[in-house]
Specification:
Largest sheet: 7 strands, mixed
Number of strands: 11
Radius of gyration: 13 Å
Helix content: under 10%
Low-confidence stretches: none
Oligomer: single chain
Order of helices and strands: EEEEEEEEEEE
Strand content: over 45%
Length: 121
Amino acid sequence: QVQLVESGGGLVQPGGSLRISCKASGFTFSNFFMTWVRRAPGKEVEWVSTIQNRGQTTAYADSVKGRFTIARDNAENMLYLQMSNLKPEDTAVYFCKRSNGLEAGQDFGAWGQGTQVTVSS
């Protein structure tokens, strides 16, 4: 079955950097767009970024553009999110999911357990 295992979250100071990862299994990873979404306390799930199946195109929410970089390693079935210049409003649980396209709201399928990112001094 499809499994998505996020890792790498933690506590970081404002302005700091962090890289989170997602290990995928149970499906042909290289056939799918992959996306990161996040859920902050008391808020709706927010789309963060999506990468095309071979990594040729990426898309970002305006709130993270220029600060976050999405990447993938199809040989290892891994998805990454490099986050820089982190802000307190980036605090959330981050999830990776499959996606039907590059736009927000196109994620589908199984959820992992997520990884908590907390930005605080």
